[in-house]
Amino acid sequence: MCGFCGVWGAKNHWSLKSSNPGVFMALSSTERMRERYALCAILNETLRGHHLKVRDWSGEQWIVEHVSNGSEIVDSIAAVWPAAEKLSKRRVDPLQAGGEQRGGERG
Amino acid sequence: MADARIPLTIVTGFLGSGKTTLLREILARPEMADTLILMNEVAEIGIDDRLLKRLTDDTVLLDNGCVCCSVKDDLKRVLLEIAEAPPGGCAPRRIVLETTGLADPRAFLATVVGTPMIGSNIRLNGVLTLVDSVNAKRNLADFPEFTGQLTVADYVLLTKADLVSPEELADVRALVQKLNPAAATADWSGLDRLCVFLNGSSQSGALLKLAGTHTDHAGHHHRHADAHSFCITLREACDWSRFAIWLSMFVHAHGEDILRIKGILYLENGAPVAVNCVQHLVYFPEHLPSWPGEERTSVLVFILRNITQDAVMRSLDSFLARTPALEPERA
User: Fold this and answer.
1) What are the beta bridge partners of residue B258?
2) B248 vs A17: CB contact, 8 Å cut-off?
3) How far apart are CA B165 and CA B162, in angstroms?
4) pLDDT per residue over B143-182, tens digit each?
C-alpha cells in the first residue's frame, strides 16, 4: 500500500492489458497510463448520458463522479457499472446504447 | 512460451454419467501419473490416498446470491496450499476436480477464476462434461442442472455410446453441439485426445477450429428450451479495450442470462486471443499460439436466455466501431 495516499497495489483485472502479460506485450509505466487514459475516454463517452465522469486515480483506481450526486472510488472497470448506477440512479445496459448503427457490411 | 502452471480441469456430469468410471480408466494410464483428484464425494476409485483430497461442501454465497459469484472456501484453501507450495516439492502435474452429479460447476469456476493468488501456479484448463448418451435428451428436458453443466463445458465426453444406436448417438452429438457449439466433443474411443486435454494443451485447438469453420457473418442460431446459442463473426480487428468495456458492461447488466460466451478474438496486434465467460465470471484472456490458416476473424459463441442475437450484434458492432453513449433508463 502506498504510504502517502493509502492506495493498495495495482489490481489485476482481466480487462487490463497490463494484467495480461501472456496476451499483450509487457507495458511500460507510460504505456500503462496511456491504456488507462484510453479506457477513461471510452468510459466517459459511454456514460455521458448518465451525467457521469470517470477519472483515473493514481493509475490504480477509478473515480466515478456524478454531476450532482457525489462520487465513488472503485478498483476495476467491473466496479464502475454498479457505482454508475448508484450515482445516476439509472440502469447501465449496453443493449440500450443509442446512436446510429454502423452502416455497410458488419464485421 | 509454454505455460508451466498446473492445469486444473473441472470434471462434471449428471448423476450416473460415468465420472468415476472415467477417472478410474484414465488414472490407470502411465501418462496420467501424478494427477491430483479433488472431489466432493469419495468414490470407490482405488487410487493412492495421497492423490485424493476430499472437499467439504462449504459454498459461501456472496451478497448478490448468484451461484456464479459464490466461493467454495475449502477448494480455495486446498488450491492455495498447492499454489503456495515451495518449488521442488511434490507438486502434481495436473489437477482434476470432480463435482457431484447435481453440482453447479459455476461455483467451482468462480472460486478458481476469482482467486488471483491461485493463478500464480495453477491455471484453469477448462470444464469436461460427461453426457450420458442414453439419458441425454431426458436429462436436458427435466434437469436444469444438466443444462448448466453442458453450457459451461469446454470438452464433452459422450458416455454409454455402446448402449445406443449410431443414429441415436448422432442425435445426441448434434444436440450437444447445438447447445454448446464451442465445446469439443468425443466419445469413449477418444480417450487419448481427452488425456491431451487434461494435460492442458488442446483448448486452443477447439477454438481455432471454431474460427476456421464459422465464417458467415451472423452465424448459426440454435434454440433449446429457454437457452439459445449463436455465433457472431467479426472480420475487422478488434480493439481490446473497447471489447473489454463492452463485455464488462454486458456481463454486469445481463450476467444471469449469459450461460456462456466463448470465442476467439482477432485483435489489432494480429494475435488470436481466447475469451471465455460464464454468467458474471470472465476468465483472464488466453493467448493462442497461432491462427489455423490465412483467415483472420473473431468468432464468438453466445449461449443466452432472454436476449436476442440481433440485440447483441447491434450492440457489439456499435461499441467496437465507436462508443455510443448509453441511453439512460431508470434503474
Assistant:
1) B304
2) no
3) 7
4) 888 888 998 999 999 999 999 999 999 999 999 988 888 8
CB B299 within 8 A of CB B273: no
Mutate to test the interface with A, among B5, B243, B249 (most CBs of A within 10 A): B249
More confident residue, B92 or A23: B92
Closest CA to B74 of B107, B48, B36: B107
Q: Which residues of A touch B311 (CB under 8 A)?
A: 95
Measure B117 CA to nearest chain A CA, in Å. 10
Query: Are B130 and B159 within 8 A, CB to CB?
Result: yes
- Burial class of residue B316, CB neighbours in 10 A (0-12, 13-18, 19+): buried
Q: A-B interface: how many C-beta pairs under 8 angstroms?
A: 140
Q: What is the DSSP string of A23-87?
A: TSPPPPHHHHHHHHHHHHHHHHHHHGGGTEEEEEETTTEEEEEETTTEEEEESSHHHHHHHHHHH
Joined grid coordinates for residue B316: 457489439
Q: Residue B272's beta-bridge partner residues?
A: B266
**DSSP β-ladder status, B155-159 and B184-187:** parallel
Task: Pick the residue of B232, B240, B326, B330 with the most A CBs within 10 A to test the interface with A by mutation.
Answer: B326
Closest CA relative to residue B318, chosen from A42, A13, A82, A62: A42
Q: Rounded distance, CA B125 to CA B8, Å?
A: 5
- Shortest distance between the Cα of A4 and any Cα of chain B, in A, equals 26
Contact B326/A81, CB-based, under 8 Å?
A: no
Percent of chain A with pLDDT strictly greater than 70: 74
**Cα–Cα distances in Å, from A60 out to A26, A33, B301, B314, B319?**
17, 10, 32, 32, 25
Q: In this predicted complex, what is the ipTM?
A: 0.84
Q: Say if residues A97 and B319 touch (Cβ distance below 8 Å).
A: yes
pLDDT tens, B184-202? Answer: 888 888 888 888 888 886 4
Residue B55's pLDDT is 54
Environment class of residue B170 by beta-carbon count within 10 Å: exposed (0-12), middle (13-18) or buried (19+)?
exposed
Task: Provide DSSP, B183-209.
Answer: SEEEEGGGHHHHHHHHTT--HHHHHHH
Q: Which three cell numbers stand for residue B114?
A: 476469482
Q: Give dist(CA A37, CA A42) in Å, integer.
A: 9
Interhelix angle A29-47/B240-254, nearest 10 degrees: 50
Indicate whether B283 pLDDT > 80: yes
Beta-bridge partners for B275: B263
